[in-house]
User: Fold this.
Amino acid sequence: MTLADLSQKNVDFALNKAKELNLPLTGFCVDGRELSIFDDGQFDHVLCMGPMYHLKDEHDRVKLIEECLKKLKPNGSIFVAFVSSYSFVWDYLIRNPELIMNDERKSELNVMLDDVNFIGKGFTDNFFIRPKDVLPFFEQFSLEKMHLLNCESFLYLREAELLKQSEEVVSAWLDFAEQVCEREDMLSFAEHIMYIGKKIEGSMR
Assistant:
């Protein structure tokens, strides 16, 4: 297993944890838009779990996926996570509902009324994508869609209450959520959306 991250501190943290757990891991501090440190066609699976949150320019997001696909073997799978443009609504409503009375925060919520992708403040500057725009983004690449799923499902909306229930109840809700996580009409419930695709054999992009 190989880790690539823009932050050396993150790489060091992961390597130390892997050592504690006696897990094989190599790590490199690199920019995902430039992965020449790795051989093309080297990996069976590529997990892109964060860069798409923070790359504000469309060209950079395209470049990132192109680089990931170069390093992926034919028929290998790529996992790409996004932050939904609806995540502000769920986060504010669950954690701090009174923020809707703050003019600056309300302007962030109003982006949902505009129905657009946008750049906004998370713990850094974030790129927020409408759920309906994820699949069209991947049409430009030589990929076969395997899954598009809602990562948190509707369980996120009642997480605190759910975790107070018995293990049996929690397990039943998790099983139920898993069965509907790929319903396109439920993608808007999630803060995060996951695309999983298979690289078409013979392609480099």
About this structure: The domain at 31-199 is CATH 3.40.50.150 (Rossmann fold). The CA atoms of residues 46 and 78 lie 5 Å apart.
